[in-house]
Each structure stands twice: as C-alpha cells, then as structure tokens.
Amino acid sequence: MRPARLFLYALLPLFAACQVWKPEPTRQDAPTRVQGEVTRQDGGLVLRPCNEQRQFNLVDGPDSAVARESRDLFADGAGKLFIDARGAYSGGQASNTDGKFEVRSLYRLQNEGHGCDDPNFRQTIVQAGGNEPGWSVMVNAQGLLLQRPGQADQVLPYVVESVPGGSSSYSTEANGEKLELWVAPARCVNGMSGAVSSLTAELRLDDKVMRGCAYPGAAYQE
C-alpha cells in the first residue's frame, strides 16, 4: 500500500464572498509568492504586483523559463499577462524600476481569465479545468465545486490523498456519482488559451476520464 495522508473535509457553504488575496510583506531576498501584471519594456519583462504601483524587472531564476513562456503568449497578441510565481526581490539595476524580481517557481502565466480580481484565491487549495468537454473543479477546505457547461454546479465533500512526489487525489462518491481529481507537479499548457500552469490534472467522473491543467491556490500546502 502506498504511503498517503488522508483527510476528510465536511461540506460548508463557503465558496462565495471571499476576500481578494494579497501576499504578506516580505524582506528582500526572502522567497515569497507574488501575483501581478507582466508587460514588455525595453526588450525585457516588467512585473507590477497586484494592488501596487511599484514595478520590477522580471527575470528567470536557475529553474524557471518565464522569458520563454511569456514570449509564446505575447506572440498570440496579448498586451499584458497575469503571473503567479514564487521568487525573491532584490535591488534594482535600472532607474525606471523599483528593483528586480527573480522567479524561482512559476505557478501560472496566462493572458485571460481571473487574475488579481479572483475573489476565491485565498481559500482555494487547487483550481483545475479542461476543454472538450469543458469542466472546472475548485477545491477548498470546505468542499469541492464541480462546474460543467449546461449542468448544475455541484458542491461536494471529499477525501484527499497525498502521495510521495507531490501528487494528490481529491475524491467523492456523493450524489450517486464517483468523482476523483488527480493533480501532479508538471508543466501544463492549456491547448485553447495557451495558459501555462504548474500542475497537470485528470478528472475521473464515473467511467469518463478528462484531462486538463491545474494550479495551486493560496491554501495549497507544498
């Protein structure tokens, strides 16, 4: 039997009326999770964190590829991108910015969808979704929300199983349906929007298997 951590979450109606997430202040050089807007400037990338006026030169760390990923999205005509990443601030090298932000881990890079305005991000553990057929699953500590076009939203209790390597399973058999969402750490690209995220997703709903991408919310435990 594989090692696992099992938790059972009860269902509570707390998916709405959430506060917008804002990272805690941090000292320079300390890794922190940051969300914000990315634009191109003078051949480089500039980050403006959510709810701030400051701007930082956005650069890749040893294990990130934001420059390449953003180039592909900008090539599709985007004027600005939304980024969700962990990294560290440091002093600036250019007079037109407030310093530098070096990306250590990229969680999400996209040109459409919820960004700084996501009201559920603070409570979200995992947000997953896929195309053809379209589906979306949001998981927080109170339950699992399944959304599909043309069908009523379902809010369900779930059991989570975490296995070595960073993969997790969120499963339920409520309401006569057997549902299991698997997420695993790996670069994932949405085939329709081009958005890049840090988790792959597989939704098993009764006898159907649907694949997609996912990203960790603020409540995700790494």
Automatic annotation (TrEMBL):
It comes from the Bacteria. Keywords: Lipoprotein. This is Lipoprotein. It comes from Pseudomonas delhiensis.
